[in-house]
Amino acid sequence: MMDWRDEGTIIAVRPHGESSAIAEVFTAAHGRHAGVVRGGASRRLAAVLQPGSRVAVAWRARLEDHMGSFTVEPLASRASVLSDRLALLGLNATCALLSYTLPEREPHPALHAMTEPLFDLMAGAAPGWLLAYLRWEMGLLEELGYGLDLTRCAVTGTREDLAFVSPKTGRAVSREGAGDWAPRLLPLPQCLLGQGPASVEELRQGLALTGFFLGERLSVDLGTRPLPAARARLIEALTRA
Amino acid sequence: MARAADDIEALIALMARLPGLGPRSARRAVLHLLRKRAALMAPLAAAMAHVAETARDCAICGNISSGEICEICADPARATGEICVVEDVADLWAMERGRAFKGRYHVLGGTLSALDAVGPEDLGIPRLLDRIGAEGVREVILALNATVEGQTTAHYIAEALEGRDIAITSLAQGVPIGGELDYLDDGTIQAALRARRRF
Questions:
Q1: Nearest to B119 among A80, A96, A229 (CB)
Q2: Do B191 and A233 touch (CB under 8 A)?
Q3: CA gap A81, A88 in Å, rounded
Q4: Which end of chain A is more exposed for a tag (fewer CB within 10 A), N or C?
Q5: Which residue of A has its CA nearest to B114?
Q6: What are phi and psi of B165, to 5 degrees?
Q7: What is the pLDDT of residues A129-172, one digit of tens each?
């Protein structure tokens, strides 16, 4: 009998039969992992099995490659996010991207360490969670091997006046280095260089930047599945905000 | 286990697909029907055939009815200028059991779902927006489930209705009748505390 215990956050739930559910949990040591939750459709467990809920899980299966079953204990509810439209869209986008991009059962402790505080920021509707979300998308790209190099200009080597990112290499380019190529490059918002608070316009630019690499690089390698609509809804809401 | 005739086995297999029934309970139910053929089985078969023939979605609200328009939409006394938006027909029936709401409904037929790629156009949201203008609606009550998907849908609808001269309300969240605080989850207690009112 295989079994382990871990803590993590529910990122997706779907009904399984009449009374059970299949939950996907993002844990530190076991990555994105699915399992059947017996009685998951019950009133008591349905409240716990909401995307964003922090839980302790015990997984058991007869063989390693079986789906197995979870027993779930609530650790922290992040239900307060339900009342905040933008934060709820952020939580949806985060959960959907985790479910969409991460291979099952592959640990990503660094990404997990970034994700839990992000969920907490969203649940508390803390100012700055959108910038944290943008940085989390950068971290997600980095974790999956599509990281952007924003340390120096790919053309001149300078660390000053970085204003663009090359869509081909994902490396920063300074205004001087860009020259006539500037219109073909992606704008680099200064908030990603740690300069000043992020305006809505900068956040949109940043999400367009990460969205390019998520959609044109990562998504293609994952079989050209479209990016989750939840991310597009967050950006749409941000545009209207 | 001894097998019944093929047609009875086929009936058992169909019954076993109903919610709450498995192969064994379906077999018991079919046996019960067979023993009460005249009193139960024949009327049940006739009723099912009739409903299968006549049941359809109400052209206005999406409720299940036996005509083009459901009884609620056809009732002039319920044109109160209030529309209660629910996810599913089961939710509409639950609201009707409470007998507290005298207006009309709108059944979305689901909720926005990132995982299942359900978008606004897959739900009855555009039809709802059309109704609000056509029926002189003054209040839209969002009676959607207190789940991530339910509330995402509620926020989406509320945003789509912004700028219109109507009240947008939602059901309260908190301690259920007969509920004991000790058994409530953290999220419900938080919601109840936020929605507290003067006693």
A1: A229
A2: no
A3: 5
A4: N
A5: A230
A6: -85, 65
A7: 999 999 999 999 999 999 999 999 999 999 999 999 999 999 99
Contact (Cβ atoms closer than 8 angstroms) between residue B61 and residue B107: yes
Average pLDDT value for residue range B163-176: 91
Amino acid at residue number B5: A
| Tokens found for residue B112 | 């926005």
By the 8 A CB rule, do B67 and B73 touch?
no
- The whole-angstrom separation of Cα B74 and Cα B68 is 10
Chain A's closest residue to B184, CA to CA, is: A44
Q: What is the pTM of this model?
A: 0.86
Whose CA is closest to A45, among A81, A80, A73?
A73
Give the helix, strand, coil percentages of chain B, each rounded to 5: 50, 10, 40
Beta carbons of B114 and A95 less than 8 Å apart: yes
The two three-digit tokens of residue B124, written as one number? 């009855």
Range B116-145 burial, b when 16+ CB lie within 10 A, else e: eebebeebbbebbeebbeeeebeebbbbbb
The pair of structure tokens assigned to B95 is: 């609201």
Q: Are A102 and B165 in contact (CB under 8 A)?
A: no
SS3 B59: coil
- Which residue in chain A has the smallest CA separation from B19? A18
